[in-house]
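Task: fold both queries, return tokens.
Query 1:
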Amino acid sequence: MNLFISVFLIILVSCNQYQSTMQIQKIPIDFKKIKSVALDSIKIKVISLESKDQSLLYYINKIQFWKNKIIIYTQGKLCVFDNNGKFLFNVGNKGNGPGEYTILSNFFIQNEYLNLYDSQTKRILTFDADGRFLHSTLVNGDTNHSYPMTLFPTNHDSYYIARNTFQGNNVKTPTLSVWTKDYKFVREITKRYLTTGLSAPDEFSFYKNEILYWELLNDTIFYVQNYNKLIPKYYVDFQDKAIPANERVEKDLYKVIQYTNRPEVIEKIASRIGYIHEDDNYIRFLFMFQRKMHYVRYDKNKQLVFTYCFSGEQLNADVNYFLDVQDDNIVLSANIKDNYDKNPMLLIINDKYIQ
């Protein structure tokens, strides 16, 4: 009974008391059936990213394979490599001049151009495929509404989706908003509100006409319905490994983070679902447990969950918390052990080889 109440409270808090006809699909994680996969035992393609002073990544937030280039967003800059990992150039620089940004919060490719969003100056900086600056566009905010902290194009012909900028505890700021393709405000998505300025480097994924959205240390994955409502769609059920309900209810994110980082807790609790990708057959995502990244592949048709923990011992590598999906391939990153001064490797794996 206690476990049932705990799970119910977590779902209730995560759903933010939404009323919806959509049934939440539970994705149960069976920690007794986690499969350990040695990376040297499966067929993988390794791309070593060249390490130079200008190209040091530290970690990878987002990756895009485009026009025989690998574009990587990391710690406030955008680095471009060729398909073999040779460093080519950085897109833009930090500063206040033309083609420079103050705070780079994300990037996207649209109409054959690279677009960088500066969340400090609220501008879109547009570059060509070779990194040449073309122009900047001001995001047309309204003093009665929040500005985007991150801004992403969707599969809709007309709209962008944005996570808003946190304006402090005294301001009730909706979490998400909708913008036109010429960067004009359309509407707030209400019923869910920001309680902190913290955010994950990955917060959205796009599949057909659907948008999935998730948050730090929240086990619920939301669906943006008709660019108007935010509705819980999937719930990752960590069962007795979930963050207890009493550590979530009416506590801000900073306190939850402090709780999960306690030495006596970090080995017992699973959290931080992210890098979620959905297609016709699967939902793929990551979570952290016992200081290790775990990969989940959920078969939507058969409703089967497969969970893997990758080991890079034979490669002398530490697998990072990062995932990208390219057709049937997953893309991971890993650093050589005790050599984090060099860029990570990209590991490209056909998902069918992971059994």
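Query 1 returned. Query 2:
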Amino acid sequence: MRPALANHVDMKPEHYAFAGGGTGGHLFPGLAVADAVRRQRPDARITFLTTTRPLDRQLLEPTPYAQVEQPVRPLTLSPLRIPKFYISWRRSVALARQVLRSQGVCAVLGLGGYAAGPGVVAARSLGIRTAILNPDVVPGKANRFLARRCDLVILQWDAAREHFPPNVECRTLGCPIRSTFAGADGEAGRRQFGLEAGRPVLLVTGASQGARSINHAVMRLWPAFHKAYPEWQLLHLTGRGDEDDVRRAYVDANAPAQVLSFTHEMPAALAAADVVISRAGASTLAELTALGKPAILLPYPYHRDQHQRANADVLVEAGAAVLVEDTGRGEANERFILDALTRMANPAARDETARAAAALGRAGAADEVAAWLLG
């Protein structure tokens, strides 16, 4: 007697691809969405199509997600390098098509930057649903190219809409951030960094590489500010290049501060802070607003499109931050940062700025983007 046929079909877990990499600013939002996908659908399979940069491997190795390195290179205006770009592009699109088709990927999320291109273009050719993240107000070259080749452009702010053609579908969902920010506890963060409870904290950060013009300005102004406002504490994340000089300057001036080159515990550091001095990268601003933190922003001054300045303007116009133009020299920045910090030392001004920041925050962006991917 023949065995009865099974009355069900074995279904493979759904597979999603994330295209992009090369910087933490591209990968961290993607990782936040990937985690949200797995929270909503624990059996989902996820593959990242990345660059060959070591940073991508470092960020993805601790995760359960697969990684496929693409040979794609940045587009260059140098005539001598265009053939190499073209060859790497063709190879990367072919690789992405192979991965997407063989793995049965059902949706692709582009994370911005040149490495997002092959995966989104390949998905489009295969009829796979696609979206791209656009966390900056001013889109980069890759997102401007991909906007007409995807189903949805996901914006952090409404102000970005005017930079895309009218027939491109856009939706303002925010910039995805890691779920650990939402659960970060300020008091635990203070203990973790050796800060005292009940005293206001200034956090200074120039992102992972540090910002010398910010470091040198705060290094010069902190002794005077600390003398005028001795209740304040400082946690200064300098980047690797300036750590020793900054720490020595505070010791010589008898102005106590906690100095680190870098921390992987940014949720704890931000939660502990009462005021933050920082650049105006899109992910940084998403984290600040999600936690409702008042900020003094010094946008990176050397980008051709000044996209950090455009990002900062969104917060400044909402009353959620104070803008200081970075002159590139610490001694020139010192006075303007000190003026802004003195203003933020007033609890009423600080609380008003914090409320405005919180009103802009979208802590649930990763879940919303994941819900779109899951259909």
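Both queries returned. Flag for query 2: Residues 1-10 have pLDDT under 50 and may be disordered.
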